[in-house]
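To make the argument concrete, we let one protein speak, a sequence paired with a row of structure tokens, as a model reads it:
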Amino acid sequence: MNRTIDIDEINRRIDAKKEDLIALTQDLIRIPTINPPGEFYDDCAHFIGDRMARRDFTVEYFRAEGSPGDTDQYPRMNIVARHHGGAGPCVHFNSHIDVVAVGKGWQQDPFAATLQGDRIYGRGACDMKGGLAASIIAVETYLEMFPDHPGAIEISGTADEESGGYGGVAYLAELGIMAKPRIDHVIIPEPLDKDRVCLGHRGVWWAEIETKGHIAHGSMPFDGDCAVRHMAAVLARFESELFPHLASKRTDMPVVPDGAKQSTLNINSMHGGESEAFEGLPTPLVADSCRMIIDRRFLIEEQLATVKQEVVSLLDGLRADRERFDYTIRDLFEVIPTMTDEHAPVVQAVSQAIEQVLHKPATMVVSPGTYDQKHIDRIGKLSDCIAYGPGILTLAHQPDEYVEVQDMIDSAKVMAISLHTLLNAAQA
């Protein structure tokens, strides 16, 4: 049986599907799967599932009951579609279906999926419904050419990546769906640029720091103890000690952009004193609590315990130096850095396909933020996983987000060729 792929033929077929690719991307964007709260997941999952079922895929739906945010109103619904072939490996294309809130500053209707020139605008166009559409077109094209392919091909649409992925890939990995030995190779079409192979991501630690105070009348603050002022001391210590220390740490990971090659810390949010929910005037009180959420991104060369201790030591120093200073710290979320070996099969297959389609070498990168590879690696015990897809990373979560049609076409070609290489590696 001839298992040689005709690159010119795959290119011609995918070029011919341009209008289908545009329409599919627009249809996906027009389902406003905003997370939080997790709207229209079920609609989007069934839209994908219905299309794949018409292509002779076996389709299954998995609701992540009990996961954060899952309710009857907002079920955390996932879809996994599988096309069975002969003996051989399983290649899985995983895309998240949720998108972030729209935010302000849009000139385009965020869910109209307007096509202007070569760009489709909309929330989720880049991150990552354009990548999902490209992977579907790639798989459908491949099956037209090789209906009797070896192994198995899977497409998934999963929930909640934007809020940690616990109602999506993490849940499926725990079930053994997104895990070894069921699947062998994973491509996640996140927007890292069409000539880049993303090997992994930095680590993350989220924590809540609370400074304590004593409530009193606002006209007599000397009778109380202001927790906001204590938090100001924490920020000052961050500025004078922690931020310079983090800036001195550099990684050998090929992280992009360049600023992310160092350790970073972001002040995610802060609240002190009375609730902001009431629209009237506040009462005159000294704040007895101030809370701050920190978002610490760390490098593969760092240990999580050390990352945490750097902050705790600073807080303990304030407790020793500052009168009446007291605090608590609570872990919210943590992910260890991950990076697939450059010689792994999926890395080599996609890199070679990029060179065949774009006629230039692939660039190896690491993402500054985490994505669902963390769950496939840690829970699913599957290391042969990368992110590769159309779109520009810096457009993600921005107003007037867009994806370029040609980028999707080129990425679909790369994914189809990569799929052939991975499925037929045993026969080579």
Q: What stands out?
A: The chain has a mean pLDDT of 96. The radius of gyration is 24 Å. The first strand starts at residue 58 and ends at 63.
